[in-house]
């Protein structure tokens, strides 16, 4: 079951109100590959609560002088770590319960 925080239902205008970021800044972060909104049939961007939190983190890092490239690299590293942890856990569960794929 998908968490409500993952559901992409928030429009860019509401994200702007929640974060204080301009719509231009939000679109820029999308262009830089930092956030990935869904699109409605009419092309409207839809964000999740997790996206809003991510945008706030990005904005805070930018205020500290971190470049978008560095933020993207950090995000890739974190995703890789998450994947490795998942694989390790899966391997441990498989070994413990003698499960096979």
UniProtKB/TrEMBL annotation:
Source superkingdom: Bacteria
TM segment ranges: none
Start and end residues of each HTH merR-type domain: 9-77
One Pfam family from the record: MerR_1
This protein's record includes keyword Transmembrane helix: no
Assigned keywords, A-Z: DNA-binding, Repressor, Transcription, Transcription regulation
Identification of the protein by name: HTH-type transcriptional regulator TnrA
Biological source species: Thalassobacillus devorans
